[in-house]
Amino acid sequence: MKAMQVISLTLLSVLAVSAEVLRFGRCPKPAVQADFNSSMYIGKWYEIMKLPTFFQKGECGTATYSAKSPGVIGVLNSELLADGSTNSILGSAKVKDPAEPAKLEVSFNASPPGPYWVLSTDYEGHSLVYGCRDYGIFRMEFSWILSREPTIPEETVEELHGILSSIGVDVSKMVPTNQDEAFCNAMSQ
């Protein structure tokens, strides 16, 4: 038991240092997008803001979703790294329960699946994604504000922040993603 506590504390220390959003308490169970339609969700989305993660270090982030099979969405995430190179990763998102199609589990390569819950989307302008994992008495939160365009109206950001705040997410921890056209042009070269 003592060894397990040391391992747990070590894991939590590593996660806390890696810029993750680690908080006390269990994950909330927020409402998700009603009647989620994955066929309307596919296509390219620009990352506008996110809670910091260890696996995303670049700017100009995009997520491109494609239909693979019923209940499965292909995922291509791309970002521009500080050295000017492009980092991309392929994965898939699967509906966990057909009764709640907005609750997906996303996995990349051999990684275990993680929650990808669409809390809000209008399919044409914005998407608010939330994920959370419980680690004992702690939880690790992930969240992204996505847009079909490289920018999004501030009123929409405020509305989406309100949704996150209502479930206890500290939106002051969210960081903007640089989507400046001139800066991000290197991704298309």
From TrEMBL:
Domain Lipocalin/cytosolic fatty-acid binding: 39-178
GO molecular function, one term: lipid binding
Domain of life: Eukaryota
Entry-linked InterPro entries: ApoD_vertbrte, ApolipopD, Calycin, Lipocalin_ApoD, Lipocln_cytosolic_FA-bd_dom
GO biological process, one term: lipid transport
CDD domains the UniProt entry points to: lipocalin_apoD-like (cd19437)
Keywords of the record: Disulfide bond, Glycoprotein, Lipid-binding, Pyrrolidone carboxylic acid, Secreted, Signal, Transport
Entry's Gene Ontology cellular component terms: cytoplasm; extracellular region
Compartments reported by the entry: Secreted
Record-linked Pfam families: Lipocalin_2
Residues making up the signal peptide according to the UniProt record: 1-19
Family stated for the protein in its record: Belongs to the calycin superfamily. Lipocalin family.
PANTHER family reported for this sequence: APOLIPOPROTEIN D (PTHR10612:SF58)
Name the UniProt record assigns to this protein: Apolipoprotein D
